[in-house]
Amino acid sequence: MSLLLKFYFQNCVFVKDGTIKIATLFTGIGIIGWSSYLLALKRAASNIQIETNLNVDASFEGLQIHSDPIIKNPTRFSFEISHPFVNLLLKKSDGKTTSIGSSNPRNQFYTIPSAGSVSLDRITINVNWRNLPILLQEARKGKIEIVTETMLNVTLQKLFNMRLPITDKQTHSIDTSKISHWLTSIF
After folding, report:
1. How far is it, in rounded angstroms, from Cα 110 to Cα 68?
2. Among 167, 164, 126, 162, which Cα is nearest to 150's?
């Protein structure tokens, strides 16, 4: 940054006789100020925290996992975020993960105030029938770990419509007693 400023002042601001080009000076100051502001916004957007709570409902229609996301903004900036997209990954006992379902994308936006939080609408994810044998296999081992991968876009400046993608992964342990009876009655 200092090399850029040095080059700017040596080549752009001063003319040969030592006078300052006022317009060029203010343009340079504006560009430097605007870029430092956008950099501060980008750093602040990376501090956004996503908290997800999972609830499991098992019925004869299938297995539904509900996610209640809470978005927290500990910064001094307010942001507009897109509705999060949630991907559920089953963490197998061998350490590998496999996708068992995902939410439907929505074109909906929320405003998070500075130093505040927003509780979003419940996101329902239906687990595919083809993934139920994998869940049953892990439930018989006694523990199911589901990783929620929450993705959203943060709008930094409405003027330029700049969006910064944020992805957050959290691991949740699910009590198998809730769903093992249901799974064993099907299979």
Report:
1. 15
2. 167
Measure the CA–CA gap between 83 and 106, rounded to whole angstroms.
6
pLDDT band at 28 (very low <50, low <70, confident <90, very high): confident
Q: Are strands 97-102 and 116-119 parallel, antiparallel or unpaired?
A: unpaired
Side-chain-side CA neighbours of 76 within 13 Å: the count stands at 2
**Vertex 55: Cα angle to 53 and 56 (nearest 5):** 150
Would you say domain 49-186 falls under CATH 2.60.40.10?
Answer: yes
Answer yes or no: is pLDDT of 2 > 80: no
According to the model, what pLDDT value does residue 16 have?
A: 54
Nearest to 156 by CA among 75, 50, 69: 75
Q: Which two tokens stand for residue 44?
A: 């602040």
Instruction: Give the three-state DSSP class for 49.
Output: strand
Pairing of strands 49-59, 109-112: unpaired
Q: Global pTM?
A: 0.71
pLDDT above 90 as % of the chain: 5
**CA–CA dist 187, 181 (Å, integer):** 10
Calpha distance 17→119 (Å, rounded): 61
Contact by Cβ (8 Å): 150, 69: yes
- What whole-number distance in Å separates Cα of residue 174 and Cα of residue 87? 16
Lookup: tokens for 16 = 């040969």
